[in-house]
Write a structure and sequence with these properties.
The complex is a heterotrimer of chains A (97), B (194) and C (97). With 194 residues, chain B is mainly alpha-helical. Chain B contains 11 helices and 4 strands. Helices cover 46% and strands 0% of the residues of chain C. The chains are: A mainly beta (97), B mainly alpha (194), C mainly alpha (97). Chains B and C meet through helix 1, helix 2, helix 7 and helix 8 of B and helix 1 and helix 4 of C. Chain B: Keywords: Iron, Metal-binding. Chain B: It comes from Neoroseomonas marina.
Chain lengths: 97, 194, 97
């Protein structure tokens, strides 16, 4: 999974609308408010051992991490139109939008 | 203000330390040494990096592309530290750093995170109503400025490169660094005026 | 957010309505001796390869909600470190009593 990044800067992506915390013990770094949301890839940040595995001392293959940009207003229905949120998201949480 | 630790927490720490020492896993001396080392980190490092970036274009470029190398260039030991990303504020974009999931913070260059950064109020509100949080702290940004909240969720740590205040032409690095507060490096403030 | 939005995990508090009206207090008190010692202990245990920061977080995230919000920051760390040391067999369970 530490191959070349799947998404290039500027690519439109969607964060998976997945809720592993409903299925049992887990550790995830994708905050709830971006799940299912569309965003734009800012840039890949490198490949890092998957924290979802590290948290349980399992073998942790590296995954590409991205900076992904979201508009604030559609998420919260408040804020100024141009305001944004930038979040580090692992590749396995992203799909093409 | 943060409440002091409960008596049962103090007792638990004593019992855990005793158990770990008895097993030969850690010593009080090791912990004290590590603590003394951690105590040395402070926002003065981040301020010095910003002041240098304001006066040295090559260093500015390094800071924005590889914050860890830029910290090391200032003599900071970054061994074992996470990568450091630096976010440049401009006349049309203001960055504000938060960690909604825990308290990720660029400790190597800013020291311990302050209590407010770790507070539930900051963690929950900064990402949803950043302009309100900034306004409560005295920073009112015009609508023409994009507020970009940076939720520090994973392997990087993030520091803001504030804009250089007007009227500081010809100032040396030490004088410039005195304008760069810890709050400006997190993005809850701008650099102090000249 | 709509009513059918899944409830986030306890620690996943970005945008949570319950803190909407809570001012961010300018608390600049540096960490006390207890906090700094817990902090140093975590670092030393990580250096020795006995735990990762991801495991620390997983332990913090598994603290029941009422305690999560009632305990102080480094008290949550200590709970997690202790639970991990027990889980890994480095100390006995009676250290909790």
């Amino acid at each position: 999974m530490s191959d070349a990044p799947r998404f290039a800067p500027g690519a439109a992506v969607r964060v998976k609308d997945d809720w592993p915390e409903r299925r049992g013990p887990c550790h995830i770094r994708t905050p709830h408010y971006i799940r299912g949301r569309r965003g734009t890839i800012v840039r890949p940040l490198g490949a890092f051992a998957n924290p979802e595995d590290l948290a349980f001392a399992r073998p942790a293959p590296k995954r590409t991490l991205y900076h992904v940009l979201f508009e604030q207003e559609p998420i919260w229905h408040e804020g100024k139109p141009a305001d944004t949120i930038m979040v580090e998201v692992f590749e396995h949480w992203l799909e093409e939008a | 203000m943060a409440a002091p630790p409960r008596p049962d927490s103090l007792a638990l720490l004593d019992r855990l330390m005793a158990a770990l020492e008895a097993k030969g896993i850690v010593t009080e001396a090791e912990i004290a040494e590590r603590q003394a080392n951690t105590d040395k980190a402070s926002p003065e490092t981040g301020a010095r990096m910003v002041a240098k970036a304001w006066t040295d274009p090559a260093y500015r470029q390094l800071l924005l592309t590889d914050g860890k190398a830029a910290a090391e260039a200032m003599g900071v030991s970054m061994a074992g530290a996470p990568p450091l990303g630096v976010l440049e504020n401009t006349p049309t974009r203001h960055h504000l750093v938060v960690c909604t999931l825990c308290s990720c913070y660029p400790r190597a260059v800013l020291g311990y995170p302050p209590n407010w950064y770790k507070s539930f109020a900051y963690r929950s509100r900064a990402v949803r109503e950043p302009r309100a949080v900034l306004a409560e702290w005295g920073l009112n940004l015009p609508d023409s400025v994009e507020v970009r909240v940076v939720d520090s969720t994973a392997d990087y740590r993030w520091m803001v490169l504030p804009m250089r205040p007007a009227g500081t032409e010809g100032w040396d690095e030490a004088r410039l660094a005195s304008l760069v507060t810890r709050d400006a490096l997190v993005g809850v403030a701008v650099a102090k005026p000249a | 957010m709509s009513d059918d939005t899944p409830i986030p995990a306890t620690h996943d508090i970005g945008g949570l309505a319950r803190f909407h009206c809570t001012p961010v207090e300018h608390d600049e008190v540096p960490p006390d001796g207890f906090g700094r010692k817990v902090d140093a202990l975590r670092q030393v245990l990580a250096q020795k390869g006995l735990m990762t920061v991801d495991e620390l977080r997983r332990g913090i995230e598994s603290i029941p909600e009422p305690e999560y919000f009632a305990l102080g920051y480094y008290e949550r760390w200590l709970r997690s470190i202790t639970a991990l040391m027990i889980e890994k067999g480095h100390v006995q369970k009676d250290v909790m009593e």
